């Protein structure tokens, strides 16, 4: 009798331990799996087993699979539900803008072709002023005359009203902010595309 009891306990323990074996694609036996598995599609994974969750839930879908099956069969690539982007897709930022592709040495081309997409409203020029005072004023000076506080130590800051600069286009200013020029470094990492165009609008008002 005792032997039978021991055998029973031993076998139960062995079964219990065996059910803990998880690894790779096998998650082992899960306790309360409906706490881990979402019924909705998960973008980065798929549960491809049609019977997944059948033992624990009574929900069955019309096409015969159990609750946890969540595979979008149209997109089984890499076992992700997420659709792959079509080839040659170009990422845009949250404003819908394409990446800037002109090289640093394309200033003349940028100056001639780029158009400011923003309107010349008082609100936009006003935002440009605030941004200018944050990012440019300390070198270029409050009126763009090249006499900011840093310009004392950082020689070569030009006057926006000089003959060479007074008629530059907004595209020119945008390109210089984005790529830098000569002694001036690129400000692309600090200033968003939209804000650069706002600053360009404001710089034009300083040249008047
Ligand atoms: C660290 C100082 C410094 C800061 C900050 C700075 N600049 Fe400049 N900027 C310069 C210097 C120096 C030059 C002259 C570059 C050269 O030709 O070598 C220059 C040149 C320019 C030019 C003329 C480019 C040309 O074609 O000759 C423009 C336009 C300009 N900056 C706009 C801006 C704007 C807008 C900002 C703010 C986003 C800004 N800069 C921030 C130092 C600075």
TrEMBL record:
Residues 123-207 form the Cytochrome c domain. InterPro entries: Cyt_c-like_dom, Cyt_c-like_dom_sf. Keywords: Heme, Iron, Metal-binding, Signal. One of its GO terms (molecular function) is heme binding. The keyword Heme applies. PANTHER family: LIPOPROTEIN-RELATED (PTHR40394), QUINOL:CYTOCHROME C OXIDOREDUCTASE MEMBRANE PROTEIN (PTHR40394:SF2). This is C-type cytochrome. It comes from Dawidia soli.
